[in-house]
């Protein structure tokens, strides 16, 4: 079909990582002003005025704060213009995390080197018997769990009197983080896929036709089929764009003082990425509220040549370690759904499909 298929990459299309909405901790601006007088002659990034005593507590909305941040970004021109500039090019300075108090209370703070955590994402793929059974080349057995493998390394080192670069608390925290970070995210994306396929029957039909053409009717989709399902991949990319699961990303924190575009970013600044604003930027995406997978196709192929969404899996040194696992899992499940079921509106009391407008809740986003 001539579609350009971009699988499993960082989802940052070259040259087009147009970054609009990097929101630098507007919440903390007043606090930083008090803490950092005289540390730099440069001004702090601008933001809305705070209230006496309460600061920005009532200024930042509780619901869908990312929409308000996007408005402020226009008003104050605080689009620090490039998440890639700060979080990727200067990534080492923005690789820290702020405190996640609840995690700490539950002793779930992972200190394992990212390499160990990244191995897990790979292990997870081959040790999941459901996924393994779909792809004949993937062994379904003989792969021990993440915790088991790290415990063995730890134990072996202890017995040999060798130092360990992580302890049991780290293993516990890392395992919990992976479970928390990997489960709901993949499940929520699947729910969104079902919703968008239901709302867009013509997209569903087109994707089903692609799967039927490539896979045939006598077997289920397998890993080898995925690179031959470019439209199915566009459906997934459009699902990411329509609804970034973390509209403001997961906050990073800066390690040292920095200056950017004439503004001072003090050490310890909490940096959010307004992924929602990037995905809804009308200068990049035509009619962004429309579910239109073809938008990524070149103009010559009936599309709009728009870039794949950037930032849904984060940025820089903290980018999601499970993104390849997530993308592979989602594509094989999506292809299997397309091959096996028609997704339609639930049946109403009169026995006919009853379309509805879903209600969205964005509470809890900083
Ligand atoms: C659709 C699925 C997923 C989405 C949208 C997603 C998104 C994200 C985002 C936005 C971050 C923060 C990145 C940053 O701070 O720059 C993150 C971090 C993380 N993700 Fe995912 N994720 C997904 C699936 C998974 C899976 C399947 C796993 C593991 C098996 C996983 C493990 C992690 C871990 C451990 C981190 C923390 C990395 C760090 O702090 O260094 N994620 N993810």
From TrEMBL:
Endpoints of the signal sequence: none
Cofactor(s) the protein requires to work: heme
Positions of heme binding: 320
UniProt similarity note: Belongs to the cytochrome P450 family.
Protein name: Cytochrome P450
UniProt feature coiled coil, ranges: none
GO molecular function: heme binding; iron ion binding; monooxygenase activity; oxidoreductase activity, acting on paired donors, with incorporation or reduction of molecular oxygen
PANTHER family reported in the protein's UniProt record: CYTOCHROME P450 (PTHR46300:SF5), P450, PUTATIVE (EUROFUNG)-RELATED-RELATED (PTHR46300)
Gene3D superfamilies reported for this sequence: Cytochrome P450
Organism of origin: Staphylotrichum longicolle
Transmembrane parts of this sequence: 12-31
Keyword field: Heme, Iron, Membrane, Metal-binding, Monooxygenase, Oxidoreductase, Transmembrane, Transmembrane helix
UniProt key word Cell inner membrane: no
Protein origin, superkingdom: Eukaryota
InterPro entries hit by this protein: Cyt_P450 (IPR001128), Cyt_P450_CS (IPR017972), Cyt_P450_E_grp-I (IPR002401), Cyt_P450_sf (IPR036396), Cytochrome_P450_fung (IPR050364)
